[in-house]
Amino acid sequence: MQNSATARPGAGIIFVLVGMLSISVNDMLIKQLSGGYPLHQVVFTRSAIGIMFGLCMVQFEGGWSILRTKQPLLHTLRGLTVVISNMTFFVALAVLPLADATALFFAAPLFITLLSIPILGEKVGPLRMGAVIVGFIGVVIMQRPWESGEALQVSRVVLMLPLLSALTYALLQLMTRKLGATTKASAMSVYIQAVFIVVSVGFFVVAGDGRFAEGSDSASVQFLLRAWVWPASGDWPYMIGLGLNSAIIGYCLSQAYRLSDAATIAPFEYVGLPFAVFWGWLIWADLPDWEVWTGMALIMAAGLFVFLREGQKARRIARAEVKARY
């Protein structure tokens, strides 16, 4: 549970809103680059730039000493979790419209609410649990289980990738809550960027020449495994923007989950849905079909209900504390 002395739900909400705006810009930029560069090159460039911004934040929050940690293995596991979450989402993004992939990914706050029970010991009552179930019904609708073959347009594997991304992202944020009591947000951001760089270099060593992508007509496989190329001059602003966004995302989301209860913060991540629809419409003229609109509505309604119930619970606790004092 969040320490009441350090809990700052208002600040946590502001940080998560800024983080979600940055994530929507990040996803838009990566989809824009997915047709010409391999994912591991984009991630390496983004993280190499992002870690420089992150190190500046480290200086602002206390200097190099805050990078020391007594839990290196847990930080490494957290970093690998976010790598899996990002890679699975971005591979799906090469095929799916931005709004569709984002909507499926937004099972993450539902996973966070569920996993906060065994991992953090948080209490989720029957009404909030019912809302989570409604949200997952929305996820099922977006999976279109009644379609098959050519009618489905994309493979079931691709449709499941954002859900895997959502699950690993939920685990990431719950680990952030565990580590946040002793680690600054800027340090956690730097650790994640470092893991991204190591994994990207590993991809380059094994598959940087593009040999594993030869003969494949899958856009996802090509994005994951095509050969590295030197970026065109017109693409450098996108790369630099990705690096800046990466630092902002890592810092803001780490701060959000350090400062407030996971079940309180998670519903505010749904603001990423309208951002994704906006960028998809503005850049690619994509608008969701009825399944995605329906799923979005159910997920957002479920998240809003969870938030309202959390607010009611907080007010009841506050009143009880006042009565206890007097």
Can you offer a commentary on this structure?
By secondary structure, the chain is mostly helical. The protein has one domain. Helix content is 74%, strand content 0%. α4 packs parallel to α13 (290-325) and α8 crosses α10. Mean pLDDT is 83; it is low at 1-5 and 317-326.
Q: How many strands appear in the DSSP assignment?
A: 0
Order of helices and strands: HHHHHHHHHHHHH
Alpha-carbon distance between the termini? 25 Å
* Count of helical regions: 13
The overall number of domains is: 1
Name the beta content range: under 5%
Overview features:
326 residues; mainly alpha; 13 helices; globular; disordered N terminus
Summarize the structure.
The protein has 326 residues and is mainly alpha-helical. Helix content is 74%, strand content 0%. It is built from 13 helices and no strands.
SSE arrangement:
Layout: H1 9-33, H2 39-61, H3 72-93, H4 98-105, H5 108-120, H6 126-143, H7 156-179, H8 185-207, H9 219-225, H10 236-259, H11 262-265, H12 272-284, H13 290-325
Helix pairs in contact: 1-10, 1-12, 2-8, 2-10, 3-7, 3-8, 3-9, 4-7, 4-12, 4-13, 5-7, 6-13, 7-10, 8-10
